[in-house]
Amino acid sequence: MPPTTHRTFSQPADIPPQLSDLHCFTETDGVITTTMFDVPGYRVVRVLGAVYGLTVRSRNWAASMGMVIKSIAGGELRWFTSMLYSARNDAISRLVAETKARGGNAIICLRFESGDMGGFAQCCAYGTAAVVEKIDPAAQVPPQLSN
Question: Is 0.85 topped by the overall pTM?
Answer without folding.
Answer: no
